[in-house]
Amino acid sequence: MKSNKNSFTALEQQDMKYHDYLDYWVCECGNFEKEDGFMACTETGDLISPFGAFYGRCERCGRVFHIGRRQIIGINPNPDRGRF
Ligand SMILES: [Zn+2]
Q: How far does residue 1's CA lie from ligand 1's centre (Å)?
């Protein structure tokens, strides 16, 4: 039986870092767009179409962040990837 248990864990909200030299946000784990990058996701980290998405997920560590506020809100190391 397929488990639909979501592995999301909320974290204390934290502003994302900004790359020292390049015009990119950087995750706590050091990942940014030119390395492993980020994927659009739901507020619990499941991957979705990037169009109109409010949240993003780090492809390296699974942290989930609010795109508009640029704040890390949680982590989901094992999301439902859907077709993404
Ligand atoms: Zn990360």
A: 30
What is the CA(10)–ligand 1 centre distance, in A? 14
| Beta-sheet pairing, 55-58 with 63-66 | antiparallel
pLDDT band for position 5 (cuts 50, 70, 90): confident
H runs (alpha helix) in 1-84: none
Residue 3 confidence class, pLDDT cut points 50, 70, 90:
low
Q: Cα(53) to centroid of ligand 1, in Å?
A: 18
| Residue-wise pLDDT tens digits, 35-70 | 999 999 999 999 999 999 999 999 999 999 999 999
Distance from residue 58's CA to the centre of ligand 1 (Å): 5
